[in-house]
Amino acid sequence: MKIAQTFVLFTALLAGVAGVADAQDQRQSVQLPPAAQESLRVEMLDNMLAINGILELMATGKTKEAGQLAETALGRSAQGKNRQKPFDARPGPHMPPAMHDIGLDGHRAASEFAKVASAGDREQAIALLPKLTGACVACHYSYRTR
Ligand code: HEC
After folding, report:
1. How many independent structural domains does the chain possess?
2. Which CATH number does the domain housing residue 72 bear?
3. What is the pTM of this model?
4. Which residues line ligand 1 (CB under 6 A)?
5. Is 100 domain-assigned?
6. Looking at the domain assignment, is residue 53 inside a domain?
7. Ligand 1 centroid to 137 CA: how many Å?
8. 126 Cβ partners below 8 Å, 6+ apart?
9. Rounded Cα–Cα distance for residues 119 and 65 (Å)
10. What is the domain range of residue 106?
11. For atom 2 of ligand 1, which residue has the closest CA?
12. Residue 56 lies in a domain
């Protein structure tokens, strides 16, 4: 047991060191105007709160409420929130089209989940949960702004 634990620790350390040595970030770097970056940051923190809220509601059997939150906070209803802002404060138009598309896919996926969950279909809603985070992962793995 002791040996196994030591081995696990050693492997973890090695992985850590390798991570530092291999600091090459392969993601595409995108420069946004500072105001757009700030809008994005606020939106992203809201996204994280929304995901957590949806998971909490699902865990406590409040499927319909989870659907409503998904639609208002992440779904197509949440799309275009920055349209009224000055151009420099809008993240979307400053993103490469492929990056922007991932964001739009995320809104669509959230609305798809929202539709099923709002109808109270818990089984199907659970099956769609990974789609809620799929766009977060897809974008974060491909792009960075800092
Ligand atoms: C279209 C691309 C895109 C999508 C989709 C996306 N993000 Fe982000 N997110 C970014 C970028 C760009 C940043 C800025 C930091 C960086 O460059 O990595 C960011 C930053 C963040 C941050 C850090 C905020 C801070 O500065 O404290 C969090 C948390 C976050 N995102 C969560 C999420 C969650 C949760 C989702 C899905 C619901 C999501 N993001 C979807 C592009 C995206």
Report:
1. 1
2. 1.20.120
3. 0.85
4. 40-41, 44-45, 47-48, 51, 74, 99, 102-103, 106, 135-136, 139-140, 143-146
5. yes
6. yes
7. 9
8. 58
9. 10
10. 29-144
11. 139
12. yes
